[in-house]
Design goal:
- The protein has 137 residues and is α+β, with helices and mostly antiparallel strands.
- The protein has helices at residues 16-24, 39-60, 123-136; strands at residues 2-7, 10-15, 64-68, 82-89, 92-99, 110-111.
């Protein structure tokens, strides 16, 4: 898909794929901003919102939640240094990976490994599931 991107020095036609590749290859991409927040701020907010929700579900028992440093196959998440946090809903899993330095923010059961194999879900699938949970409780 070709779009025109407005740069300070003029308008330049560029594909979204090319722009995404440029962003991925920047050395300090956490400082890229939409003009209001950096990517790093947005990822941090997402992680904190997730921790708040997981902690609430762990306390109330509304949904089963857990954290683990190993996937269902027994392998460490991304080869180590990361963990998986999972919310188990009746319609599917909501899960995210975080660096181990955030482990203590998630106050939920710690499992040796995930009891759930990866089901092939995409970010769009999880977003749809989260929308359903948000609308229906």
């Amino acid at each position: 898909m070709q779009e025109e991107i407005k740069f300070p020095y003029g308008i330049m036609p560029i594909s979204i794929n090319v722009l995404n590749e440029l962003i991925k290859n920047l050395e300090f991409n956490e400082f890229i901003s939409d003009g209001y927040h950096t990517f790093q701020e947005l990822y941090n907010y997402r992680m904190l919102y997730n921790a708040l929700l997981v902690n609430e579900y762990a306390e109330t028992g509304k949904y089963a939640v857990y954290k683990t440093k190993k996937h269902n196959d027994g392998q460490e998440c991304f080869g180590g240094g990361w963990f998986l946090v999972v919310i188990v809903t009746p319609n599917g899993l909501i899960d995210n990976h975080y660096e181990n330095k955030y482990w203590d923010l998630f106050k939920c059961p710690d499992l040796d490994k995930s009891p759930h194999p990866f089901d092939g879900h995409t970010p769009a699938d999880v977003a749809k599931l989260m929308m359903e949970v948000a609308k229906n409780g």
